[in-house]
Amino acid sequence: MFFRKTSRAIGVHPRQNKSTQGMAFVRVDGFSRLTIPLNLQVGPGCSALVKKGDEVKVGQRIGEPLGHWSVPAHSSVSGTVTEVKKDILSSGDVADLIVIQSDGKQTLDESIKPPVVNDKESFLAAIRNAGLVGLGGAAFPTHVKLDPPEGKVIDTLVINGAECEPRITADDQLMRDRADRVVAGINLVCHYLDIPRCVIGIEDNKPEAIAAMQKAVDATGSEHKAAISVVTLKTLYPTGAEKVLIRYLTDRIVPENGLPADVGVVVLNVGTVAFIADIIDTGMPLIRKFVTIDGSAMAKSGNYDLPIGAPIEDIIEKVGGTKVPVGKIVMGGPMMGVSIDDTLHPVLKHTNSLLVANEKDATIPKESNCIHCGRCSKHCPMQLMPTDLDMAARRENVEELREYHVMNCIECGCCTFVCPAKRYLVQNIRIGKNLWRQAKKKEAK
Ligand code: SF4
Ligand code: SF4
Questions:
Q1: CATH 3.40.50.11540 matches 120-282
Q2: Which of 373, 385, 389, 415 to mutate to test ligand 2, by most ligand atoms within 8 A of the CB atom?
């Protein structure tokens, strides 16, 4: 066990700035050129099933999985493939990409129909065939998550509706609009995986979502009705981090380098579980995503329903454009998001937010010497010593990184947020984790 048992909730209280809260999703279409990545998920991704010049339809499979951990890729538009290429996206990801010129007709692929599902295997196959990965941000293949290793018994399904990152409200809106779909998805997962209990965790800054979820749970006539509970969590970042959420909702502690399945738990995001219900009803693969777009440079903020593969540049233009020069675009929330500098970067399956900041908000503070105040350790939800990890990473000392449990860092950024010296803690710890991975690879050879 790594965590000390503590009754104290650990984390930080960044300003919420959820100005898009309560804004209904606006569907945005009409993109002329879309770029569908084939390998931006946890696992090996897939290989192209189409070539330059091929015609494709909406929902058509265009990427074939390369292994058990992969999911297929699908086209979000109808049109013509203009390029199949490998490229480095500005996020640093090396991506295999299929570029499609839309014909504007949105012709649906005729092979799309509800899957035949009658047991766990066919249920997991349907989920995989739809290209589903965790929609909360991790992009972990859902069919793998729902198929725990031999010998692990899952007794609790945890549904993550915390959405603890500031600014993002897409999950909040999804719970208000589609609570019945979330509950339908929960019932399917509990049924096919034989899970007797489900806990839905939502932070108390989303009262409408909590009410909608409770109403949907009360209304369901399923055999699993009694097993589903909605739990209100205190608003505290990073309550939605998987291991932290499990601790708050089940009082169980995932061991270091362990999985939720080690403590009998599987965690799904609200969007993921709602999408499972849609897959089983319609067979439509994952080709669209609910995304919050906000930030000091945007003329207008809101929640949008976007096709996967749409370029950020066109999206910003279509939703009202910017009012001042852009300093930075972040994919994800302000605490854990990844900065991108190429506006042709496409929306991905796990994109939940785009933050477009003005030049002032994009300024990176200059770091100074550590004053050993201890705030970073005090606020670390994983009870790590960020300053020691930071120094070990700067020294490239893998032994120390190991000793200080670098791989237990969830990269939440709480340490950086509270540091009065503005130390680049989480940035260096990320480098430290990569050093650890490289060392591990070398050892394995
Ligand atoms: S060390 Fe890692 S887990 Fe701890 S506060 Fe920093 S980023 Fe979060
Ligand atoms: S919060 Fe910053 S200044 Fe304080 S101990 Fe941690 S790294 Fe040093």
A1: yes
A2: 373
The radius of gyration of the chain's CA atoms, rounded to the nearest angstrom, is 22
Ligand 1 pocket member 411 (CB < 6 A) = yes
The residue extents of the domains of the chain are: 25-105+285-358, 120-282, 375-444
Over the stretch 60-71, which tens digit does the pLDDT of each residue have? 999 999 888 899
Evaluate: CB of 412 within 6 angstroms of ligand 1.
yes
Distance of CA 374 from the midpoint of ligand 1 (Å)? 13
Number of C-beta neighbours around residue 325 at 10 A: 9
Beta strands in 172-275 (DSSP E): 197-203, 228-233, 265-269
| Pairing mode of beta strands 55-56, 25-27 | unpaired
pTM of the model: 0.93
Q: Answer whether 423 contacts ligand 2 (Cβ < 6 A).
A: yes
- Burial label for 318, CB within 10 Å (0-12, 13-18, 19+), is middle
CA distance 399 to 401: 5
Q: Is the CB of 372 under 6 A from ligand 2?
A: yes
Q: What percent of the chain has pLDDT over 90?
A: 81
Is residue 384 within 6 Å of ligand 1 at its C-beta? yes
* CA separation for the pair 269, 148 (Å, rounded): 17
Nearest to 243 by CA among 384, 435, 44, 430: 384
pLDDT mean over 145-169: 95
Residue 56 near residue 100 (C-beta atoms within 8 A): yes
Angstrom distance (rounded) from CA 427 to CA 118: 46
Q: Of 268, 280, 318, 277, give the one whose Cα is nearest residue 298.
A: 318
Phi, psi at 434, each rounded to 5°: -65, -40
DSSP 345: P
